[in-house]
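Question:
Now give any protein.
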Amino acid sequence: MNSSDPQPGQRALRRGRWSEQQRIYLVTTVCIRRRRIFASDHCADIAARAIADPGKWLGATLLCWVLMPDHWHGLIELHSDIRLESVVASLKGRAARAVNRSLHRKGMVWAPGFDDRALREDDVLRAARYIVANPKRAGLVQRVDDYPYWDAVWLEQQRRG
């Protein structure tokens, strides 16, 4: 079974859901058995680069994300008829292949499935703040800026402006 294929119970949770163009989703996915795979800076750096590569987000935009030691949160905006499941499967596959290649191993990195919530426009910035503050709330850093494995498009806009 592919690491992004949902289990039967997870498939049932997806039943009746659809992916909407121009909709922003808060997505969470966890490491297999909640292992702290990304507690290693080496693995976190490799996975973060694979996930954040803007050239790989065809049909979607990654607006904001954080890679925690045992899970990932992101805000994903869909632009085409692509399904959210396909976008998440792609990001999980890219990260898993990159980590496994760097460690010269095979095996699952991510647990099957993911959680998602479609956001209203007025909830997007609140969700982004929640995402980027995750490392501070978890006690990994004192300041959000001290954590290296996150980004948000709003920062890039500030850098250019």
About this structure: DSSP finds five helices and five strands in the chain. Residues 1-5, 12-16 have pLDDT under 50 and may be disordered. The chain has one domain: 8-120+131-160. Strands lie at 24-30, 60-67, 71-78, 115-119, 150-152.
